[in-house]
Amino acid sequence: MTKDIVIDKINEFLVEEFEVDQSVIKPNASLQDTLELDSLDYVDLVVVIENNFGFKVTGDDFKSITTYQDFYDLIFEKVSAK
Amino acid sequence: MRRVVITGMGIYSCIGKNLEEVLHSLQNGLSGISIDPSREEMGFRSRLAGLVEEPDLKSVLNRKQRNTLSEEAKYAVVATEEALKTAGLDLSYFEENEAGVIYGNDSSAKAVIDAVDTIREKKDTTLVGSGSIFQSMNSTVTMNLATIYKLRGINYTVSAACASGSHAIGMGYQLIKAGMQEMIIVGGAQEVNPLAFGSFDGLGVFSTREDDPKASCRPFDRDRDGLVASGGAATLIIESYESAMARGATILAELVGYGFSSNGEHISNPNMDGQVRSIRMALKGAGLKAEEIDYVNAHATSTPVGDKFEAMALREVFGSKTPISSTKSMTGHECWMAGASEIVYCLLMMQHSFIAPNINFENPDEVSADLNIIATSKEVELSHIVSNSFGFGGTNSTLIIKKV
Questions:
Q1: Could you tell me which chain A residue has the CA closest to the CA of B126?
Q2: Which of A36, A44, A50 sits opposite B130 (nearest CB)?
Q3: Residue B201: which of B229, B225, B163 has the closest Cα?
Q4: Residues B360-384, mean pLDDT to the nearest whole number
Q5: Residue B403 belongs to some domain of the structure
Q6: Residue A59: pLDDT over 90
Q7: Which of B11, B237, B267, B288 has the fewest CB atoms below 10 angstroms from its CB?
């Protein structure tokens, strides 16, 4: 899976799951702020990642995530390692 | 002690998705019972059910609010939206005034079972998602309503089997009467999915008259063969008379009596004594004699044993003249919701001066023959109404409303 495909897939499920407009999703934007994520939402983010990519992201993984780009990089790294 | 009045009501049931539709069904004796084919695959004895559609709340609530709603909590939101509207209330009122919530609910089976299925399949608890725990607890309705409507007063759920909704109203009544709360959102909710009713069906107490679903639920009739489970939600806004007057609210009725008792005997079989004590306690609290009651909305679910004991209790307290009907003949048994929805049905009857019929009452049995069962819709002024609710474990609740 190429990185572009991974990014498209992520953007698609974030728009669907978190009901945000596609326009708020920008590589350097804050994931937490734009999606208004609280502690419960991170649980749902784990679920939606598992449903779409078949692996589980842990709480520690999220510690390094600030922007969408960080998020894309993390998921692509895990997809590539599969 | 203060007076307690009802200023709002809302309903979402198998005989109508709002007050207008429900009124039409009650006036015309329309049954909400149908067949749920999925119950056959699951091994149910009976496919009969009072089904309701799961509402789409996207236009009412945001994603976070919807994420924690169980099936029955969704119904409760719809009923509460209507109740707040009829009471002339919106979110801004609750920002400035303390109000509480007490709701009757005694299961959230689908949410629990779905979560366990996921954990068994995935071997991972996180993957049930964040909303699951808030959908799974019996207090799912009150925890969601309290956060959606920013309520800052009393906040708890009453679990008392098929009397849950009635006791919830009774507890709210007591708190306002005692001066501890000014306004409380009260009600009852019931999930309708098959997972919630499998073990109940297994007791063999559901009607199997599948060839004629509309005739299956026939409380007090000689040929009744069991209840039909249904659900939805009903909400009432109750407040002190002073609160209602101060905000210029329209008073729908006054709550004047709450009686309760426990049979102290069998876990599923009723007895007459407990029911009589509950009714008499409510009458005493209201300062009313039995002959002053214009109509009794019976608990009667259409089971051979249950209806017989209630008929005996009603004969003991009211004699043979007081008009009686069971709206469950149309709605089926709304279980945890029934005690609240039946107050909504009674309020509609009081407002529109009629008694909703006990449909399918064709032939009395040896006990119901002594009662004044109203089998067809009847126009009559109603000043005082008694509503009974009884449940497993021998819990009994009786409410009395009065026209103001």
A1: A43
A2: A44
A3: B229
A4: 98
A5: no
A6: no
A7: B267
What are the residues whose beta carbons fall under 8 Å from the beta carbon of A5, sequence distance 6 or more? none
Say whether residue A19 is in contact with chain B using an 8 A CB cutoff: yes
At B227-241, the pLDDT tens digits run 999 999 999 999 999
Query: B353 — contact with chain A (CB < 8 Å)?
Result: no
pLDDT of B33 reads 98
- Write the pLDDT tens digit of every residue in B278-299: 999 999 999 999 999 999 999 9
Q: How many CB atoms sit inside 10 A of residue A70's CB?
A: 16
Please report the number of interchain residue pairs, chain A to chain B, with beta-carbon separation below 8 angstroms.
29
User: Which domain range does residue A43 map to?
Assistant: 3-81
The answer to whether residue B23 scores a pLDDT higher than 90 is yes
**CATH code of the domain containing A63:** 1.10.1200.10
- Cα distance from N-terminal residue to C-terminal residue, chain B: 18
Domains identified in chain B, total number: 1
Residue of B nearest to A20 (CA): B63
- Smallest CA–CA distance from A54 into chain B, residue: B122
Cα angle for residues B237, B249, B10 (degrees, 5° grid): 35
Question: Could you tell me the maximum CA-CA distance found in chain B, to the nearest angstrom?
Answer: 62
> Is B400 part of a structural domain of the chain?
no
Is residue B402 in some structural domain?
Answer: no
% of chain B exceeding 70 in pLDDT:
100
| CATH value at residue B178 | 3.40.47.10
User: Predicted ipTM?
Assistant: 0.91
